[in-house]
Amino acid sequence: MFKMSSNKQLIGVRLRDEDRKLLKEIAKRYDISESDVIRIAIRKFAKDMGIEVG
To answer: Could you name the domain of life of the organism this protein comes from (predicted)?
Structure first.
């Protein structure tokens, strides 16, 4: 049975072609999803900026 509601939000990100290729290459190299690459990058950026990552 399908779950009709979710607490995850769908967010669109506009990327240049070279950024999209880089995203796909990283995901392929580490065998993770493109959304995981973005999630990891956001968390690393926040940590580097001194923002508490929950």
So the answer is: Archaea
